[in-house]
Amino acid sequence: MWAFWWEPGRLVVHRTTIDLPSWPVGGSTRVAVIADLHVGSPRNGVDNLRRVVRRVNRLGPDLIFVAGDLVVDNVVGGTFVSPEVIADELAALAAPQGVFAVLGNHDRWLSADRVQAVLEGAGIVVVENRGVSVELARGSVWIAGASDYWTGHPDVQAALAGAAEDEPVILLTHNPDLFAEVPGRVSLTVAGHTHGGQVILPFVGRAITPSRFGERYAAGYVIEAGRQLFVTTGIGTSRLGVRFLVPPEIALLTLRHGELPADRAAPALPRGPTAADSTTP
Description:
Layout: H1 2-6, E1 12-20, E2 28-34, H2 46-59, E3 63-66, H3 83-90, E4 99-101, H4 105-121, E5 125-126, E6 130-136, E7 139-145, H5 156-160, E8 169-172, E9 188-191, E10 200-201, E11 205-206, E12 220-224, E13 227-231, E14 249-257, E15 278-279
Helix pairs in contact: 2-3, 3-4
């Protein structure tokens, strides 16, 4: 009941503050991140997508990132929902500095051109192997995007082309495996794809993590060799409509100027609700 019915229908807001040496001094930026929407998976239809969009907007982010996998077509008990219907709902996302997206492997298996076209038609900026400069209150930031590591042809250098030498860079991509190849020039990489393993077995760990690095980039905030990564556990499900100890989440990142923290690995235990989190059944 918990894993197949209750938890897939939950929604957690997970808040993380990230210190970036390259970020403009004296200001902070709130970034809402959603990924792996997989609209049509069990307990995750269009009505739930509307709930996610409303919840993101109520958080009042400065920027919104959609880190791929809008669609799903291989989940037991699910129903295919077209990217056109999904994009119509995502068009309601609102952030003063813009809404940005990349495509995921499921989007590309369906049709990269089709999914990109409907996102752009909804007013969402798709940053596939390219970047744009965004003006913040105390300076600009380069929002870069790289194609999916498995099904696309990610080109980080193309995504960084045009960024000013002293401009902080956020790289949005779907699969966090790309992080191992991201240069130190990038201030922060943001990804999804893993679903946090979707299931965490007590005393065992994550049942399956779709990554060549295992749990190394499974979920949450990672610092490695002076480079920073955040991986959201996503909203929907694939293959089986089950989540256990990995609830659907909206990630709210607060980016601010600060010293680089020491290296830290992905959390080995589930990130359940804390006093700083909020949940909606």
